[in-house]
Specification:
The complex is a heterodimer of chains A (236) and B (102).
Chain A lengths: L2 H11 L1 H20 L4 H11 L2 H13 L3 H12 L1 H10 L8 H9 L3 H8 L7 H24 L6 H7 L2 H16 L1 H19 L8 H19 L9
Chain B lengths: L2 H25 L7 H19 L10 H16 L4 H18 L1
Helix pairs in contact in B: 3-4
The chains are: A mainly alpha (236), B mainly alpha (102).
Chain lengths: 236, 102
């Protein structure tokens, strides 16, 4: 496949992400507006950050006029999971991929773009990610804008329904591979059990949701790697 | 809150977030040969996506019932290897229709 058709494939696969992002960023826009951000500021934040939890958390920090250090640490904690995702993505790209391409792909490492791009069979082309990023970042910024300028443009029932879109996509990524490979199923089920424990157990539930995901991921992937290591140097 | 300081806040958070994403992608250029690390990274996506989905999906809509039915629909369609877009849209449609009745 040439670069253009890979890019187009990315834009098509990015559509569900775009829809999900529209709903979430719409909610973000409404909140950003009540925190005192202008439409331009909210859209610039969405364009330069592309991170849901981090952006939502920043609003109360900005509104409170808290220190930049507090803001930086919050972002580090909430977004540290992207570090793991970037490590995994680095193994999907060809070693020949240029530094510039890597720097561009990096901007689009979100839960959803990562989920879709890492599930591509074989080597990953940066042009696929550019396609995913084009439509999903557009959706993220456009939804933000709509949320700021008109909180009641979409009926509530529609935003509520779109809220599940992103999770539907995750399920569509994990289930087919779990069906084929029992070891993947093990990692997935263990991660689910851990994330439920972290969410509902006393004390543990005080951990931020970003950290809960990191802890569940590291423990589940470590156990799976110990019990079911990959064959030596065989490409999966 | 003046405008300039809001832009400084935005700049700082964008920088922190970008560095987290860019450092591994630019620094890790070779294929990792260590068997444990390769296996670990192989399982990371499935573990992360699963942990992010459950239990969060049950809080993603305005009612637990609609979220549960949407989840069930997504599970069945995903099991039948339907595309990402199909699964996402049908789950949303199930939520929308359910919420008309409750």
């Amino acid at each position: 496949m040439n670069k253009l058709s890979i890019y187009k494939k990315g834009t098509k696969d990015g559509l569900p992400i775009c829809f999900g992002y529209l709903a979430v960023s719409f909610a973000f826009g409404i909140q950003a507006s009540s925190a005192g951000l202008s439409a331009l500021q909210a859209v610039i934040m969405s364009l330069t950050n592309v991170t849901s939890a981090g952006q939502f958390a920043s609003l109360s920090i900005i509104a409170a006029g808290a220190s930049l250090l507090e803001l930086a640490i919050t972002q580090l904690i909430l977004n540290l999971r992207y570090l793991l995702m970037s490590c995994a993505l680095s193994q999907k790209l060809s070693y020949k991929t240029s530094t510039l391409s890597r720097l561009l792909v990096a901007h689009g490492v979100t839960d959803e773009i990562f989920g879709v791009s890492v599930s591509v069979k074989g080597e990953l082309s940066p042009f696929y990610n550019y396609g995913l990023m084009t439509v999903s970042i557009f959706g993220w910024c456009f939804g933000t804008l709509l949320g700021v300028i008109s909180g009641d443009l979409l009926p509530f029932s529609v935003t509520s329904a779109l809220g599940i879109a992103i999770y539907g996509m995750f399920i569509a990524i994990v289930v087919p591979d779990s069906k084929k490979d029992k070891h993947i199923l093990f990692a997935a089920l263990l991660a689910i059990a851990l994330s439920c424990i972290l969410k509902y157990a006393p004390v543990l539930s005080g951990i931020s949701s970003g950290f809960q995901i990191i802890i569940a991921t590291i423990i589940a992937a470590t156990c799976a790697a110990i019990f079911f290591p990959l064959e030596d140097e065989k490409d999966e | 809150m003046n405008n300039i300081s809001i832009y400084i806040y935005i700049l700082v958070m964008a920088l922190v977030t970008y560095l987290i994403r860019a450092l591994p992608l630019t620094l890790i250029r070779k294929k990792i040969t260590n068997r444990f690390l390769r296996s670990f990274l192989h399982y990371v996506p499935y573990a992360t996506l699963s942990a992010m989905t459950i239990p969060a999906i049950f809080y993603s809509t305005s009612s637990k019932i609609s979220a549960f039915l949407g989840f069930g629909a997504a599970l069945i369609l995903a099991y039948k290897n339907k595309s990402l877009l199909t699964v996402a849209l049908v789950a949303s449609a199930v939520v929308f229709i359910t919420e008309l009745f409750i």
